Amino acid sequence: MKKGWMVVVFLVVFLQACQPQMVSSLQLPTNTSVVIPTDTAVPSATATQTPTMTQTPTMTPTVTQSPAATPMARFNELKLLLLENKLGGWTMQWVLPGVQIPLKLLLDNREYTCTVDVKYPDRLFCQGLAQPALERPITLVFVNPENGKEIYRTEFIIPVALLKPPTPVGYAQTNCPDRGKNVSCETECRIAPDGTPCIVATCVDACGPYFSVHSCPDDMPLPSHSCTAEQWVAMKKKYQIP
């Protein structure tokens, strides 16, 4: 009986040894984190800048210049320096900045020939036979003598003060280098019988006797009334008496 029990125990132990071992713990595979793809950002269409119309510069009208060198002359600065009655006609000396060639001058259609001198830049020396009108508007025209085309036109007034008084007969020291310097005059301003002022003057300069003025009538009665201060100033300016 005891021997049979031991056989049973032996069989039980044997059977347990033959069974495969159970895994103590079943390792389940861990969940790997799955990256869920996100929507890729689709680049938005950027607004294309439409090129604006650029402003094309318009051509400004070009002033057609004369073929001669006269366009450089600044006619707006034209000024008369001297008007003189000399042997051979009337002479004028003009200031015309930039003038480079001889010109023809017309004063109320009276013609004068003008020349330039390299020793005196910006000067124009004109000569003609006719006396230009004084103290009233006249038409002044410069013409290119090479082609006869008009270059400049304006209205001009020649004041009588620019008229150089003639040198009296016997006062012919014109070659004196100091002519016109240190001028002094003895003057009398009177009222003529017709009521207008007149003047008598004798002037000298560094060279001696220079010029004289006698605008009073020869039959001027004496004594006569003297000019007012304003009339005196006007007469001295008219005859360029210092």
Q: What keyword list fits this structure?
A:
Immunoglobulin-like; about 240 residues; mainly beta; about 10% helix; signal; 7-stranded antiparallel β-sheet; 3-stranded antiparallel β-sheet
Structure description:
This protein starts with a helix and ends with a helix. The protein is mainly beta and 242 residues long. Among the domains are: 93 residues, Sandwich (Immunoglobulin-like), CATH 2.60.40; 55 residues, no CATH class. 11% of the residues lie in helices and 31% in strands. It is built from two helices and ten strands; from the N terminus they run H-E-E-E-E-E-E-E-E-E-E-H. The strands form two sheets. A seven-stranded antiparallel sheet has the order 1-2-5-4-3-6-7, with no helix packed on it.
Q: How do the helices and strands line up, and which of them pair or pack?
A:
Elements: H1 2-18, E1 79-86, E2 89-95, E3 103-107, E4 110-117, E5 120-128, E6 137-143, E7 150-157, E8 184-191, E9 197-205, E10 208-214, H2 229-238
Tell me briefly what this model is.
With 242 residues, the protein is mostly beta strands.
